[in-house]
């Protein structure tokens, strides 16, 4: 049984300014923590235009391409920057997610973890935002529906920030269930429980600052798992952010490493029950390097244990 780890060195060429939390050091902390594990190591391919066009309009791709600086770094929004290598890094992240879907649906892997950056869940249909350029998990979900013929895909986003971009990209498609847990109030400010989407396929769960593991586990088992189970997805996609960890500098939720084991194991158990264990997990946030490495390793250990 197999868990795939999908990454690429190009993801180290997305350079952000000194002091920016979404930095090269994140992957340099996480990937060594996954050394020696029983993983099928796969090189992330570049996403093709057709992949990106599943989620974004053509003029947006042109805008992003035209934004690549020849040198130095360029600011796209208050938080989002591009360096000469950023486009290729983002294409590896999206391409890696598409590859993960292909492998899991082909039975080449039981589940997969895509350890690429920049993250994707804040990128909206026509705007980069919050460190993100392309809606990676939304692209992966639409790829599974449009090209593999699946009828229902669920996305669970446990990053501490609301996945506003994913919601924007998928909420009009009733074949996709989008569930996000996030601290409120916190960036980006969206994700009120009243936002349920035009088809009722969005579930936003707001967390109070200071929420600890036991409370989060109850939310997972009492609210998230039943909702996903009732949707009967044929594939489960995770926006795996590790910034709800107690040590993360950007937020105030207090999960510990073992909570990420629990979250992952429970979601894997649900996937085993409803969709043959088929799960694709994509790295989003996580900005304390030690916490990212330790909780990310717990996440991958649980994927391996379930695979
Ligand atoms: Zn985040």
Note the topology.
Layout: E1 3-7, H1 24-33, E2 40-43, H2 49-52, H3 58-66, E3 74-75, E4 81-82, H4 86-106, E5 111-114, H5 136-148, E6 153-157, H6 164-170, E7 176-183, E8 202-207, H7 213-231, E9 235-240, H8 257-275, E10 279-283, H9 289-306
Parallel strand pairs: 1-2, 1-5, 5-10, 6-7, 6-9, 7-8, 9-10
Antiparallel strand pairs: 3-4
The oligomeric state is single chain
Cα(first) to Cα(last) distance is 5 Å
Provide mean pLDDT, rounded: 98
Q: Report the bound ligands by name, code or SMILES.
A: zinc ion
**Fraction of residues in β-strands:** 15-25%
Our Rg estimate from Cα atoms comes to 17 Å
Series of secondary-structure elements, N-terminal to C-terminal? EHEHHEEHEHEHEEHEHEH
**Helix percentage range:** 25-40%
Number of helices, where a helix is a run of at least 4 consecutive DSSP H or I residues? 9
Please list the strands of the largest sheet in the order they lie side by side.
Answer: 2-1-5-10-9-6-7-8
Poorly predicted tracts of residues: none
Helix- and strand-based class? Answer: alpha/beta
Q: How many E strands? A: 10
Shape by Cα distribution: globular
Largest sheet: 8 strands, parallel
Briefly, what is this?
With 307 residues, this protein is an alpha/beta fold. The protein contains nine helices and ten strands.
Write up this protein.
This protein has 307 residues and is an alpha/beta fold. The protein is 39% helix and 15% strand. The protein has helices at residues 24-33, 49-52, 58-66, 86-106, 136-148, 164-170, 213-231, 257-275, 289-306, and strands at residues 3-7, 40-43, 74-75, 81-82, 111-114, 153-157, 176-183, 202-207, 235-240, 279-283. It has an 8-stranded parallel beta sheet with strand order 2-1-5-10-9-6-7-8, with helices on both faces. α8 links the parallel β9 and β10 (279-283). α4 (86-106) crosses α5, α5 (136-148) packs parallel to α6 and α8 runs parallel beside α9. The protein is globular and about 50 Å long. The structure holds zinc ion. The site of zinc ion (ZN) has 7 residues, from loops.
């Amino acid at each position: 049984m197999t868990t795939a780890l999908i990454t690429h060195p190009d993801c180290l060429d997305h350079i952000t300014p000194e002091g920016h939390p979404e930095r090269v050091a994140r992957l340099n902390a996480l990937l060594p923590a996954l050394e020696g594990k029983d993983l099928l190591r796969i090189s992330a391919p570049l996403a093709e235009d057709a992949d990106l066009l599943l989620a974004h309009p053509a003029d947006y791709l042109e805008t992003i391409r035209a934004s690549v600086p020849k040198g130095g770094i360029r600011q796209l929004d208050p938080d989002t920057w591009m360096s000469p290598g950023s486009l290729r890094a983002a294409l590896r992240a999206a391409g890696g997610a598409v590859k993960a879907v292909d492998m899991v649906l082909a039975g080449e892997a039981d589940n997969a973890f895509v350890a690429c950056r920049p993250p994707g869940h804040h990128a909206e249909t026509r705007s980069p935002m919050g460190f993100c350029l392309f809606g990676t998990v939304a692209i992966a979900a639409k790829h599974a529906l449009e090209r593999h013929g699946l009828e229902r895909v669920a996305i669970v986003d446990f990053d501490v920030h609301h996945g506003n971009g994913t919601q924007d990209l998928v909420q009009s498609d009733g074949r996709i269930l989008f569930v996000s847990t996030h601290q409120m109030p916190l960036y980006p400010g969206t994700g009120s429980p009243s936002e349920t989407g035009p088809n009722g396929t969005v579930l936003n769960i707001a967390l109070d600052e200071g929420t600890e593991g036991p409370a989060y586990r109850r939310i997972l088992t009492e609210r998230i798992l039943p909702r996903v189970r009732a949707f009967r997805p044929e594939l489960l996609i995770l926006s795996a952010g590790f910034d709800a960890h107690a040590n993360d500098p950007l937020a105030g939720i207090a999960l510990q490493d073992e909570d990420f084991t629990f979250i992952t194991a429970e979601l894997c158990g649900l996937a085993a029950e409803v969709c043959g264990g088929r799960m694709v997990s994509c790295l989003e946030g996580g900005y304390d390097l030690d916490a990212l490495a330790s909780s990310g390793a717990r996440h991958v250990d649980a994927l391996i244990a379930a695979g």
